[in-house]
Design goal:
Blueprint (H helix, E strand, L loop, with lengths): L14 H18 L1 H6 L8 E4 L8 E4 L9 E5 L15 H6 L8 H13 L3 E3 L1 H4 L5 H8 L2 H6 L3 E4 L24 E4 L15 E4 L5 H7 L7 H9 L2 E5 L4 E5 L3 E3 L8 H4 L7 H8 L20 H16 L15 H11 L9 E2 L2 E2 L9 E4 L21 E4 L8 E3 L2 E9 L7 E20 L3 E6 L16 E5 L3 H6 L5 E4 L1 E3 L9 E6 L6 E9 L15 E6 L1
Parallel strand pairs: 3-4, 3-5, 5-8, 23-24
Antiparallel strand pairs: 1-2, 1-4, 6-7, 8-9, 9-10, 11-12, 13-14, 15-21, 16-17, 17-18, 17-20, 17-24, 18-19, 19-23, 20-22, 22-23
Bound molecules: zinc ion.
The site of zinc ion has 7 residues, from loops.
Length: 550
Amino acid sequence: MLDQMAVEVPPRSNLSRALTLARKWLVSCTVSHATCMDNSKPDWYPTRLLEIEPRKLTPMLIETKACQLSGGYACLSHCWGSLPITRLLRDNYDSFRKGIDPALLPKTFRDAIEFCKELGLRYLWIDSLCIIQDSLDDWREESNMMCQVYRNSTLCLSAAGAADASKGLYFDRKIEGNYPFPQCPAFLSDRCKRDTQNSSYRDWYLVPGDFYTNLCAKTYTFDRAWIFQERFLATRVLHFGRREIFWECCTANYCETFPEGVPQDVIGRTDILPKATYERIRTSSYTQAIIHPRIFDISSRPVAEQMQMTWEALITEYTRCDLSNLGDKLIALSGMAQSVWLDWRSKLSGDVQYLAGVWNIHLPHALLWACTRCGPRPAAYIAPTWSWASTDGQIDFQLHHWKHAYEFTSTILDVRISYVKSCWGQVKDGHIWVKGPIRKINWLVRKEYWIYATHDEEHPLLTEDTPSKYGIEIVPDEDYDVCTQGWGELHALLVMRFLDPGVQSQCVLVLNPVNDQCNTFHRVGIMSQMSGVQVADWFDGVAQQAIKII
Ligand SMILES: [Zn+2]
């Protein structure tokens, strides 16, 4: 229930409406958002850009090092789709340097060029036209710079409503649901008065709780893993959605319904991590209690923990996205990883290393993730099994750990990773040596898909009839019926212990021995504390042992 003005959305979006909104929001952002102004470097340019001359719609490919450039550039975030797309190739490079015939370009690119021209942005970066698509060397070189390309752009245009590049930036709106929002006369209860000065009997707007989630979810860009980092790296993103044109920057969210700012109560209800919320985590200025379900007050935490919470919020969001080629899992995240490293390295003492999606300074805590809605483990090698990146599913971290005192029971002895090219990209091989209390466990699949483990001395004969209170659920790292077929005699490793034994949490890794390799294991799951069984007690008196997890 809101007292804020909500504006009716017109039945079709077009260039002139988009320009009016973009100018208004860009002025607010560049004049009054201190965080946004700090973020981009105006003197950094990508290797190549499209130059858009003021009176022409024929863009020209330029090499920025050889040119005197002035003013910022925009970048385009879009889904390639399955249609053939105009691409920069070795064969057409020279001709693109002289000018690119607009008739060759898909509608989304033409719309983006026209929008930049009218907004007064002279340069535009589009991946397929600024990276040589038939040169693996150029692709590797340039894709390694995604972090800077998006971070330093003035504005990122997100073709959010376009399934492929032929659909453009403007759409007929299928007005669904509650436009305009209904109004309702009411008195406010005391509990509702906190955000408003005026609590007298009057009309209030009724806004659906999923309003902002729907705005984001009904797009083609919010759930694509390749586009994920573009949204977080860019300082400002203008989303050309099918329902509305909307804006995210490091400070605010605007949309056509709420052009003066989407109310925090509406933002706070979304399942999607908004850019501005992420920015407040990243800059440790998130001092409120839980607003976003995955975020806590982190400002009072040590710096390494702040970085860990930031990273975990990102990975939870990233693993929600679709990735057609699972082998790209670490590559599509590489710009984001570099950005986080740039942000945090100066705040931390010691060596900060990125290890297959995990940061060395967060170990062993960073081993305690759980995979939800997981499929079979990817056939191609992506990462060692102790990294979340080795799985195909959404990753959950143990956020409530931060609320309780704990001690680690395992220590990391060594981590080795070998990379295909750089530490930010694909991994060839890797292992971790960890020392901690490890013991064998019994397990069985109960009622078709619940997997239970027991402490083998106390309940050696685990059967379907054993009461579930004697068992602890195993959350597997891949689809349960696939993974359990390959399991043998499982082992459990206690990574940490809570000082308050009443805390329920996941802090025991489930490991499957690797045949013919002494003391070597694959991680296959994590134990979920439930039904009052104190899993940490299983490890009383158990000797510490050094093992290798690959
Ligand atoms: Zn801003």
